[in-house]
Amino acid sequence: AVVGLDRAQVAALLQRPGVPKVNTSTLGLALARGQSGATTVSTTMELAAGAGIRVFATGGLGGVHRGYGSRLDISTDLLALSRFPVAVVASGSKSILDVPSTRELLETLGVPVVGWQTDRFPAFYQRDSGVGVDGRFDDLRELAMYARAELARTGRGLVVACPIPEAAEIPASQWLVWLAEAEQRASAGGAAGRDVTPALLAAVHEISGGATLKANIALVKNNARLAARLAVAMTGLG
Fold first, then answer.
1. What pTM was computed for the model?
2. Beta-strand runs (E) in 16-80
């Protein structure tokens, strides 16, 4: 596996058709076969931990799905957080998921969830999912000291919840309308299992006229900025 792609490698990956999404259960298959893959949070955590990287940013975590097809569907992202000592900066979990159940399962797995300048667990496009976090940090150095100590103490990961910027937030009432239509399209298209998330995200992007993509870019940039500052602060601690 390559940790830290150069520009040529990124371009080659983007131009390659049909790149599969790989999680911790399928990473080994891709490696054995010499295939490229698009990493999920769980796979990125595994590779980052192996490379000695302690912080990375993503948009939103995978989690507990809302019961499409009435079968259990839980992202490996949550279990990875209980296995790999990496701090993941994210805007909560994706809004298409059962966010309260996702938050509850993180607690069950013993994964700390702390908020950056917030007392609430975000829901990707919304700043408040209706559930809280384990603790709040407003000072970067204090967060860095906590993250470094917690990763070393437990050997597990932790979530740094960073809400989408207020100016980019999509009102919950509008989001629910778009999501309902996207769910109908995904169901009609026969999406199931790991195909549900990309089907829903693609549908809601089209339905919203690109508004969700614009919000997604805003929150990812914001998360990356915080993750970079946190990584520098943790390194500065020695």
1. 0.91
2. 21-22, 38-39, 55-57
